[in-house]
Design brief:
heterodimer, A: alpha+beta, Butyryl-Coa Dehydrogenase, subunit A, domain 1, Butyryl-CoA Dehydrogenase, subunit A, domain 2, Butyryl-CoA Dehydrogenase, subunit A, domain 3, four-stranded antiparallel β-sheet, globular, B: alpha+beta
Chain lengths: 376, 402
């Protein structure tokens, strides 16, 4: 057993951490957020060219660094610490994960483009009625000659406003929530018949409603077999969920550190509020939540390639989701009034931690999934 | 003891219900449902309807414009207005400075200030918190120095900074806690001043909060001249008014009627939202959380009723009202948590609302539009009016004698 990172992994963390500390200040982030584009292309270019991190989880054969889930965890935790809004999660972790798993010509063509920073991929999986059931799909793909025709509506697709590609889950057969009959397509975002309604999100990103109206796509855009992609989708969503847990660890670490610092500075009743036992215990409870989140995220990340993947990821997301709520709410509470001011850093970390709670499944969803797998 | 309403109470309830149905301004319908930010005119339109009817200040003594209702009637009133999704009234005049003025003010002050509060013609704000005086309110530094003017009259010159001043951007007048003596114990050198917000030297700067709202402000006072006859109660006895007001603020803060309506709203959302093809309301985890909320709300409601009963028998709201503040705000916050949870993916899109120049209709079901901003915003409730930590200190000290 060895929980130490390799030299390469340590270097990866240091590289990302240093770059973000130097360039991704809170003010710079807020400039991007208020700019309305939803991302800063210069940051992405630096990720690709200066840092070379977009290849972290890909094989050397594809031009990557030969890493995997641990590398994604490291990058995502740093992304959480700096509250990065650029699309490492959907592009590298999720779409990259799907391409890696499926292999073939599409993977050979697109993975180098991801690594080079040219391909930005948004993950269009949610639907208005589906909540967290990945198979609850009304968006359809109908066979049409050698290709398919897509119709439907995808909800709250983060990063879609500036994506070059969409990774789309569809129903190509079977009934609305059947496990069979689910397919996965990777299509250019400008494919004819794809329209969007773009909007900002409460946590500083940009997202879209994406509509498909008789969108004709070739069979070469399909990942995994026709009607047999649910297993792959569950895998990439689990990988994405582990990654977002790592992001939450970064977010909550900063929430805790910022709050601890504030509690030492802020004086009321003639002493630092951190001198009051109720505040001390609260900060200790927050600290314990962060540490447990880091631990269970590591557990889930290390089990991604094992048969225990699903239960490990659900355990992690449930635990991390609860921890994120506790840490976020108490960070605001201990800051008092300024905790709910939009001008302070802490509120923005709180918003992101709140949104992470729901992404890829709430605490209830993952506790339920864990119970079904482990207890039956 | 009797849980049932009397025939008179039922007749009163029907009268109230009919009045709200006929008189509630139509343009306000749905604004609470969708969590929209309200304008000054929105607030005033309902206020003026009630002022005209004579029902604007049920809690006030009749000689000052109160309704003379029993505590049961007041309870019915708050239940019915909440059930009708009526907007809340701004508390700064009606629930805060009004009671201070009729309790501690001179006859001239009562005559001068109470009518404007009742009519809604004067919008009040509260100048309490300062950057260095939050939970430790008595630590306030805003200074009022007394001097005799060229006209031979007595004045204060006020300098300092207030913060978290809710709706000061609309305010005509503010009530301020200021330091008039720095050489005594903190609580003993404070005075309670009424200040015209149009006075030279006052600057109001917005603070934008997490949901994008402009509710609170910084208020800067630079050589603001205030006539001494705008001080309520004795010089250096302002803390007495402040403590009185905080107790008043806390009883209303339980928000039971509004929370009941909030629970109904979540149920209705959870009936519309789907989970595995079924109503979200049928998800056992979600259902349990709503049930727990209702149970806790029942306990809070009957705690409030017991407090009200004590009040009407002349005991007045005591430190027990801290319990109402803590549990009431925890429930209000849980309601917003559940609403956000129920919204699922549609909790994420951010819209400022139609009033802010965003004319496109928001995406997702109407009830999801402001679930996240409302959740963020409601974190304030466990902070304002004396944080819940401070409320626990009050119970520990005043009730438990620790």
């Amino acid at each position: 057993m060895d929980f130490n990172t390799t030299d390469e992994q340590t270097m990866l963390r240091d590289t990302v951490s240093r770059y973000l500390a130097d360039t991704y200040s809170f003010d710079n982030r807020m400039k991007t957020v208020h700019g309305g584009a939803g991302w800063n292309p210069a940051v992405w270019k630096a990720f690709a060219e200066e840092l070379g991190i977009l290849g972290a989880p890909f094989s050397e054969a594809h031009g990557g660094l030969g890493g995997g889930a641990v590398e994604n965890m490291i990058v995502m935790e740093e992304i959480g610490r700096a509250l990065v809004i650029e699309p490492y999660l959907p592009t590298v972790v999720i779409a990259g994960g799907a391409l890696k798993a499926a292999g073939g010509a599409l993977a050979d063509a697109v993975i180098p483009e991801i690594i080079a920073g040219n391909a930005i991929i948004a993950f269009a999986y949610a639907e208005p009625q589906g909540r967290y059931n990945l198979a609850d799909l009304r968006t359809t793909a109908k066979k049409d000659g050698a290709g398919y025709v897509l119709n439907g509506h995808k909800s709250v697709v983060y990063s879609a406003p500036y994506a070059t590609h969409l990774l789309v889950t569809v129903r190509s057969g079977g009934a609305q929530r059947d496990k069979d009959g689910v397919s996965l397509f990777l299509i250019p975002a400008d494919t004819k018949g794809v329209t969007r309604r773009d909007y900002p999100t409460v946590d500083g990103s940009a997202a879209s409603e994406v509509y498909f109206e008789n969108v004709a796509v070739g069979a070469e855009h399909m990942i995994g077999g026709e009607g047999a992609a649910l297993t792959l989708i569950e895998q990439i969503v689990d990988e994405g969920t582990a990654a977002i847990c790592a992001e939450a660890c970064g977010v909550t670490r900063v929430l805790h550190a910022t709050t601890l610092d504030y509690a030492k500075q802020r004086k009321q009743f003639g002493k630092a509020i951190g001198d009051f036992q109720v505040i001390q215990h609260r900060l200790v409870d927050m600290f314990m939540e962060v540490e447990q989140s880091v631990s269970i995220t590591l557990m889930a990340t290390l089990k991604l390639d094992t048969p225990e993947r699903a239960q490990a990821v659900s355990a992690a997301k449930a635990k991390v989701g609860k921890g994120a709520k506790f840490v976020g709410q108490n960070a605001v509470q201990i800051h008092g009034g300024i905790g709910i001011s939009n001008e302070l850093v802490v509120g923005h970390y709180f918003k992101r931690s709140t949104m992470i709670e729901g992404q890829f499944g709430s605490v209830d969803h993952h506790m339920g999934r864990y119970e079904r797998i482990v207890i039956g | 003891m009797d849980l049932n309403f009397s025939a008179e109470d039922i007749a009163f309830r029907d009268e109230v219900r009919a009045f709200i149905k006929d008189s509630y301004p139509a343009h306000l319908n749905g604004k609470i449902e969708e969590g929209e930010e309200l304008s000054k005119d929105d607030f005033l339109s309902w206020h003026k309807v009630l002022a005209k009817k004579g029902w604007i200040a049920p809690a006030w003594p009749t000689q000052y414009g109160g309704t003379g209702w029993t505590s049961v009637q007041r309870y019915i009133w708050s239940e019915e207005t909440a059930a009708a999704d009526a907007i809340r009234l701004m508390p700064f005049g009606l629930s805060m400075v009004g009671p201070v003025i009729y309790t501690f003010g001179t006859p001239e002050q009562k005559e001068r200030f109470l009518p404007g509060i009742l009519s809604g013609d004067v919008w009040w704000c509260q100048g309490y918190s300062e950057p260095g005086a939050g939970s430790d309110l008595a630590n306030l530094r805003t200074k009022a120095e007394r001097f005799t003017g060229d006209d031979g009259k007595e004045y204060y010159r006020v300098n300092g900074q207030k913060t978290w001043t809710t709706m000061a951007q609309h305010a005509d007048w503010g009530f301020f806690l200021v330091r008039t003596d720095s050489n005594v114990k903190a609580q003993e050198g404070i005075s309670f001043l009424l200040i015209d917000m149009k006075s030279p030297g006052i600057t109001v700067r917005p603070i934008i909060t997490l949901g994008g709202e402009h509710e609170v402000n910084e208020v800067w006072l630079e050589d603001v001249i205030v006539p001494v006859d705008q001080r309520i109660y004795d010089e250096n006895k302002g803390w007495t008014c402040a403590k009185f007001l905080l107790a008043h603020e806390r009883t209303g803060i339980a928000g039971v009627a509004a929370s009941k309506r909030g629970v109904e709203r979540i149920k209705s959302i959870a009936r519309s939202e789907l989970d595995e093809g079924e109503q979200l309301l049928q998800n056992p985890f979600f259902k349990r959380k709503i049930a727990e909320l209702e149970v806790d709300l029942s306990a809070l409601e009957f705690t409030e009723l017991r407090t009200l009963a004590g009040e009407s028998s002349g005991k007045g709201p005591g430190p027990e009202s801290s319990l109402l503040k803590i549990k009431g705000t925890e429930i209000q916050q849980r309601i917003t948590e559940l609403a956000l949870e129920a919204a699922g993916h549609y909790g994420a899109p951010y819209f400022r609302g139609f009033g802010e120049g965003d004319n496109e209709h928001p995406i997702g079901p109407d009830y999801t539009h402001r679930t996240a901003p409302t959740y963020f915003n409601m974190r304030k409730t466990s902070i304002y009016g004396g944080s819940n930590e401070i409320q626990r200190n009050i119970i520990a000290k005043m009730v438990l004698g620790l």
